[in-house]
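User: Could you walk me through two proteins back to back? I'd like the raw sequence and the structure tokens for each, with a short line separating them so I can tell where one ends and the next begins.

Assistant: Of course. Protein one, sequence then structure:
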Amino acid sequence: MHEPVTVSRANRHRGEVEAVIDGERRILCLTLGALAELETAFGAESMADLGSRFSSGRLKSADLIRILACGLRGGGNRLSDDDVADMAVEGGLAGAARLVGDLLAVTFSAAPQSASGEATASP
């Protein structure tokens, strides 16, 4: 018997990723509004400062919650940071960390990534 095929609704060229959170498939995207919210939350002077902070690899659990919440709101989900803190991400803490890494990579990368993580040519 074959496994059912899961079609992703996320468009990585628009900076979207898809994840299962609280048992529901959701789209996350760090829109300009979400990035502005993150700049304010982390006291970053610029997007470069924000990117540097994220690339350090030293994120707290509260940082993961804030990034996921901003990404979820950017993807059209009406959720507060407190809502997101109470939600279960598929794969637990490691899954949440991978999801944040994927979201940041697709947002800050110059070349869009394929599902396998390889750079793809821009259209």
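----
Protein two, same layout:
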Amino acid sequence: MKADGMVWVQRVVGAVFAVGVLALIGAIVTQVGQAEGWPPLPIFLGLLGIVVLLLVSAGCLALISVAISARRGAEALRRIAGQGLSAPVAAPARPFSQPPLREVASEAQPEPAPARPARPMGRTLVAER
């Protein structure tokens, strides 16, 4: 399968993410252990680093997933194009071109809708919309 290279890249991104999280947790524990109290800045920066690392790795994995899907779609289109060689090819439609007036005039006109029957004189209108 050709997508094996992408799978390995996904695994490498996952491994780098795991190592980064472990390193950040280790740095937070080291800084908190060296301080006399609970310093909020190293903890905040460590959590911020984990969030940034998570967002970057999620973005990388999303891009890899899109690349894999695009490759599979392109391969499917190639297979479909290879199978449809014997079928007659229709002329491509031009969406913004006007048909000639002769063709429009020669088309059958649709029947007009039947008219509503007249309202009986003895009845009154109860409500209006």
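The mean pLDDT is 77.

Let me know if you want the two compared in more detail.
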